[in-house]
Amino acid sequence: MAHIEEQQSLSLSEPVLVEGLPGVGLVGKLAADHLVDELELTYYAACHCEGLPDVAVYEEGGREVRPPVRIYADEDNDLLVLQADVPVSPEAAEEFSTCVTGWLAEQDALPIYLSGLPEEKDDIPAMYGIGTNSGGRLLDEFDIDTPRESGLVSGPTGALLAEADKQGLDSVGLVVQANANFPDPEAARVLLTDGIGPIAGIDIDTDRLVEQADRVAAAREQLAKQMQQAEEESTRAQPVGMYQ
User: Fold this and answer.
1) Is residue 209 part of a domain?
2) In sequence order, which residues have a C-beta less than 8 Å from that of residue 241 and are 6 or more positions away?
3) What pLDDT, on the 0 to 100 scale, is given for residue 241?
4) Rounded to an integer, what distance in angstroms lies between the CA atom of residue 84 and that of residue 167?
């Protein structure tokens, strides 16, 4: 039976949950992973929802086996983070969203759903917010921009937002410009500093994400050069000996 199994008893009051499912630019996963590591969050609950693969996850230096989708907690900050090591298939999105949203309603939690918008950005990635029930008023309170054009959020994150709307649950969706083809730590940093931090009332050091963004940018530049060189080589013709 689909359910979320709490691993320990914690005292949380109207917590904020940050969703970290893989998606465009891996912005949600990067943000969630950073929160778990930076704040040294406690493993709180296992997600046993329909559609999730039966795989065992383990970590470097440890022997413990955990499910691929888990929830971590920070009792002092009333913070929950959904960390995922596998994507949720579109076919399973409805069952997954029902499973998670029902549990969030029981916790009286405010979920923050994260999505990347595959769009070219000039400088700092732009971010806007959407919400369900009273979520929109919360976004106004923190001066988070409204969408510049009509759009939709698809996949499991879209299903979670749709289910929150269906159940009349307060929720927030943050959408940030992100690279469509590579992990985008800079976009994840914007989510953390301009959205998640203010809404959750936490201060997050993002220095490691900035360093990661620099490394990714350098890797992208190197890849572009390699692709250009490959293209140049692929358009050249020259004779070669049979056994060269």
Assistant:
1) no
2) none
3) 42
4) 24
Q: In this structure, is the dihedral angle defined by the CA atoms of residues 143, 32, 157 and 24, taken in order, positive or negative?
A: positive
User: Which ranges of the chain have pLDDT less than 70?
Assistant: 1, 216-217, 219-221, 223-244
State phi, psi for 97 to the nearest 5 degrees: -65, -35
pLDDT at residue 223 in the model: 57
C-beta atoms surrounding 75 within 10 Å: 14
Residues linked to residue 74 through DSSP beta bridges, in sequence order: 79
User: Quick one: tokens of 26?
Assistant: 């891996």
Print the domain residue range for 190: 3-204
Per-residue buried b or exposed e for 167-189, using 16+ beta carbons within 10 Å of the residue's own CB: bebbbbbbbbbbbeeebbbbbbb
The alpha helices in 73-206, defined as continuous H runs, are 93-107, 135-141, 155-167, 185-190, 197-200
Residue 210 belongs to some domain of the structure: no
Residue 228: per-residue pLDDT: 59
Q: How many domains does the chain have?
A: 1
Largest CA distance in the chain: 75
The predicted pLDDT at position 221 comes to: 63
CATH code: domain of residue 194: 3.40.50.10900
State how far the Cα of 89 lies from the Cα of 14, in Å rounded to an integer: 29
Cα–Cα distance measured from residue 206 to residue 209, given in angstroms and rounded to the nearest whole number: 5
Q: Can you spell out the DSSP letters for 39-77?
A: TTPEEEEEEE-TT-----B--TT----B-SEEEEEETTT
